[in-house]
Amino acid sequence: MLENIGQEVVIRCRATGSPKPAISWLANERTIELSTSASSSSSSSSSSDQESSTSLPSKYAVLPSGDLLIRNATFEDMGKYTCTASNMHGTDTVDKIFFYPTEPVSPFLFLNLF
After folding, report:
1. At residue 41, does pLDDT exceed 90?
2. Which of 36, 43, 64, 71 is at a distance of 20 to 30 A from 108, taking alpha carbons?
């Protein structure tokens, strides 16, 4: 998946089931912790949890559809993304998503000299 640096990027992950599956995301094999508020909820986590996860609530958001929103994409966001959907009946994972941010390309200029 290619998107321009500085743009919002949506990586799709859709899951259905009953009960509704919980969606979690990994970026380069590290958990993306998400919160519903602007403040981070990781202060109550143990130090080992903090080492294995990235808490960036202002950078990432899971949309109601389960899709991952990345705000202001940068080269640091490049890598493999994994979506996991799980409920009491099981778990399913999609791990073949690679995001590569690109530099914006200037539009071509066409001149009509007639």
Report:
1. no
2. 71
Written as one string, the DSSP assignment of 93-108 is EEEEEEEEEEPPPPPP
Domains of the chain plus CATH, in order, are: 2-102 (2.60.40.10)
Helix (H) or strand (E) holding 46: none
Q: Which of 27, 1, 25 is nearest to 13 (CA)?
A: 25
> CA–CA separation, 97 vs 46, rounded Å?
30
Q: Do residues 95 and 82 touch, judged by C-beta distance below 8 A?
A: yes
CB atoms within 10 A of CB 88: 8
Instruction: Tell me the C-alpha distance between 9 and 30, whole Å.
Output: 19
Dump strand ranges (E) for 2-112: 2-4, 9-11, 22-27, 30-33, 53-55, 60-62, 68-70, 79-87, 90-102
Query: Model's pTM, two decimal places?
Result: 0.69
